[in-house]
Amino acid sequence: MSDGHTIRVLTVDDHPLLRGGISGAINAQKDMTVVAEASDGEEALACFRVHRPDVTLMDLRMPKINGIDAILAIRKEFPWARIVVLTTYGGDIQALRAFKAGAVGYLLKSMLRTELIETIRTAHAGMRRIPPEIALEMAQHAGDDTLTTREIEVLRDVAKGNSNKIIAARLAISEHTVKGHLKNILAKLGASDRTHAVIIALKRGFLDI
Length: 209
What we know:
- This protein has 209 residues and is α/β, with parallel strands linked by helices.
- The chain has helices spanning 16-27, 41-51, 67-77, 92-101, 112-124, 132-140, 149-159, 164-171, 175-189, 194-204; strands at residues 7-12, 32-38, 55-59, 82-87, 105-108.
- It has a five-stranded parallel beta sheet, sandwiched between helices.
- The longest helix is centred in the last third of the chain and has 15 residues, at 175-189.
């Protein structure tokens, strides 16, 4: 935990150049220091156990253990952990999953230059940080019906270019059932066709392919 003067930060990202840039910006601050860097969720948990940082910066898409699962694992052992997600993806579903997992902040990587340092201080102070555009996106879809696990499976196969027949065989369901799922998907996402549904699902974070 912090000595009350220096905010101790753990950075987690699978791109070493980005980690280096983030660490340089943090270490340039008089009241902050990077205590460790990790390249995936597995390393993140190991580093957290050793260093017990005040704030952790967590990428979402990483090998071995992804960011959401890493947040869940860290928060299970250390409920007090303050974790800020850093991501290139602004979808409301990804953000919602991150906050449900226990994140206290969500920052797009395009905002790092202007928002990073203040976001770390905000998280350390015990407050949440949600960019206005992400908050707006979440609010706009707050009343929407979410996709079921099965519907996401179907849509993932659609994104791979599979036909209804192939999807039905892979999921051990009838083509009629696949068509029913697709009808529900289009309605829930407000999509005009299969391709449009995939585009919306990728943008909002239902799919991660």
